[in-house]
């Protein structure tokens, strides 16, 4: 079964508002990666977090890795129409394969 | 232009037929992967290969087979034993196992 859980499954956001998507694992992760898949496209790597408590920013996107390395979050501020898509977290439980969350599909109301 | 190429973009399978999805990369990556994507279920790992001439089953390998005879190529065969093959199939590669993935543009497989 799925070892990395991601919520919410869907996020409908008013343009300009903020939102957060969360990932949780039952086991400690060596690292966590985030990907974005635009409608009709393929997943594209966004970032990797490795250290306990790590926080990284990419413009309006803020990524956090929990202290216990079992959870992570992606926070987007001032949502734009270009943020539309599905965001996946992927936990590295063992080095050779990632366990993907089910994804959060984001739609934006202009 | 370095990248990972999947073909065909769309594929139709008749009942009882085996079909093969192509995946080629020119990134000089050691590791390659096949994922299946169904709506609302994220990406599930079918097979992966850490090095040429070696591959391992992922979480949903039943009804699928792979080969890794060349570093650049990792074709996936969907056999007639796979009773629910309709899905979007994504091939990916990484420099080494566990590193960030580069995905191909995917193959949508449907059953006639």
3D architecture notes:
The complex is a heterodimer of chains A (110) and B (112). Chain A is mainly β and 110 residues long. Chain A has strands at residues 4-7, 10-14, 19-25, 31-37, 44-49, 55-58, 61-65, 71-76, 85-94, 97-100, 104-109. In chain A, strand 4 (31-37) and strand 5 form a beta hairpin. Chain A is globular and about 40 Å long. The mean pLDDT of chain A is 94. Chain B is mostly beta strands and 112 residues long. Helices cover 0% and strands 50% of the residues of chain B. Chain B has strands spanning 4-7, 10-13, 19-25, 31-37, 43-51, 54-57, 64-66, 76-78, 87-94, 102-103, 107-111. In chain B, strands 2, 4, 5, 6, 9, 10 and 11 form a 7-stranded mixed beta sheet that branches. A 4-stranded antiparallel beta sheet of chain B has the order 1-3-8-7, with no helix packed on it.
Brief characterization of the structure:
The complex is a heterodimer of chains A (110) and B (112). By secondary structure, chain A is mainly beta. Chain A contains no helices and eleven strands.
Indicate the topology.
The complex is a heterodimer of chains A (110) and B (112).
Chain A: E1 4-7, E2 10-14, E3 19-25, E4 31-37, E5 44-49, E6 55-58, E7 61-65, E8 71-76, E9 85-94, E10 97-100, E11 104-109
Parallel strand pairs in A: 2-11
Antiparallel strand pairs in A: 1-3, 3-8, 4-5, 4-9, 6-7, 7-8, 9-10, 9-11
Chain B: E1 4-7, E2 10-13, E3 19-25, E4 31-37, E5 43-51, E6 54-57, E7 64-66, E8 76-78, E9 87-94, E10 102-103, E11 107-111
Parallel strand pairs in B: 2-11
Antiparallel strand pairs in B: 1-3, 3-8, 4-5, 4-9, 5-6, 7-8, 9-10, 9-11
């Amino acid at each position: 079964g799925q070892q990395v859980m991601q919520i919410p499954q869907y996020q409908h956001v008013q343009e300009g508002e903020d939102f957060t998507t969360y990932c949780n694992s039952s086991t400690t992760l060596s690292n966590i990666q985030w990907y974005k898949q635009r409608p009709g496209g393929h997943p594209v790597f966004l970032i990797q977090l490795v250290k306990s408590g790590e926080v990284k920013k990419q413009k309006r996107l803020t990524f956090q890795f929990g202290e216990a390395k079992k959870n992570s979050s992606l926070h987007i501020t001032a949502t734009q129409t270009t943020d539309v898509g599905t965001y996946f977290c992927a936990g590295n439980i063992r080095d050779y394969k990632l366990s993907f969350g089910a994804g959060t599909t984001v739609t934006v109301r202009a | 232009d370095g990248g990972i190429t999947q073909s065909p973009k769309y594929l139709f399978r008749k009942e009882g037929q085996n079909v093969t999805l192509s995946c080629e990369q020119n990134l000089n990556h050691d590791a390659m992967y096949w994922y299946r994507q169904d709506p609302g279920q994220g990406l599930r790992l079918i097979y992966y290969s850490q090095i040429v001439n070696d591959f391992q089953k992922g979480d949903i390998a039943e009804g699928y087979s792979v080969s890794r005879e060349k570093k650049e190529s990792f074709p996936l065969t969907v056999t007639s034993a796979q009773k629910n093959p309709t899905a979007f199939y994504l091939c990916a590669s990484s420099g080494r196992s566990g590193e960030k993935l580069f995905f191909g543009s995917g193959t949508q497989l449907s059953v006639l």
